[in-house]
């Protein structure tokens, strides 16, 4: 691939550079009338909203470095290719849940897609106290469909191996997750930071042998269990929603990994939003009511995931692990049910472990979340983060003993 022509976009050059694209002219109208603004709230890439007389689109371009750190952290432009490949697959597996893709330009590491409007990034809605009544259902369906349909339960062996090989190429981003999520929070890594006042708990985490053993185990699951194509970065900043619609964006970290990773990261971000509520609503009753919504959403997400995964198991188990010849075909329907229950129990246990890792890294690692970062009262922020860390540690250490989403929610409710 010839990247000599690569040049980062800016708002003023975009109409000139993309004004010949039929996919954009159809949607927007003539390039002379385009209005461009950079969104720029992500960690890694350039994102522009382009508005024309007929409509609007989003253009996303990878930079040869990580935007959050700067040019000192070089990063492969190929991530735009993997984002495009992943969004195409995830969109086919759960139609309507990703933005429509308009074009991909490999040399410019650039993709254009549907402008989601009036959608809001989910964590922004959480901070504003806006309820998204369908969020849990939509995410539960999305997780079941994408994780099942990308796995050996669904895919035939040749396609599956080819896909695994393709996404193995996204190793640089997999390596970032391995370090930032599973190692850095538990050692003195140069990019770590935490709220003043948390020095004691940060150093306690670095000395916590049981927690570090859990981190090693979860890292091994993440790195070695190539169970399905994951989104790989499914926090609530990668979800845009309205009260009636939910979309998943930003799939550049896509890789083959364990199902529980996407589920656990998503649940962790709902729980963290609940722990942060007091920092966004002075009225304790309002904060409590919004927490109820967030925990109910976590409950709906998991129960919907289980129900939809079970439905797909019954009707679409056509892949390498299909296995209906072992049980149903020989008159043993109970055998199939046991296999399903065993699998779901393992996803649940993984999800709890990964949730514990995600919580640790969002408070002690490099990339923090807006729900905590925007709490101006540093003392209050630190107190809320401290409680959240204790909860995350509990999840990681007790992942084999927490039997249900109700039990996990009860822990969140009483520890926050
Ligand atoms: P990064 O990989 O840098 O995190 P994202 O894909 O998360 O980039 O996009 C950054 C921000 O741009 C999002 O938080 C959202 O505000 C906005 N954005 C991205 N894609 C769209 C879209 N299709 N429609 C509307 N806004 C979008
Ligand atoms: Mg993002
Ligand atoms: Mg972002
Ligand atoms: Mg991203």
UniProtKB/TrEMBL annotation:
Keywords from the UniProt entry: ATP-binding, Kinase, Nucleotide-binding, Transferase
Assembly notes: Homodimer.
Catalytic EC class: transferase
Classification via NCBIfam families: MTRK
Name of this protein: S-methyl-5-thioribose kinase
Keyword Cytoplasm: no
Superkingdom as given in the UniProt entry: Bacteria
Domain Aminoglycoside phosphotransferase: 36-287
Organism: Xanthobacter aminoxidans
GO MF terms held by the record: S-methyl-5-thioribose kinase activity
InterPro entries: Aminoglycoside_PTrfase (IPR002575), Kinase-like_dom_sf (IPR011009), Methylthioribose_kinase (IPR009212)
Transmembrane segments: none
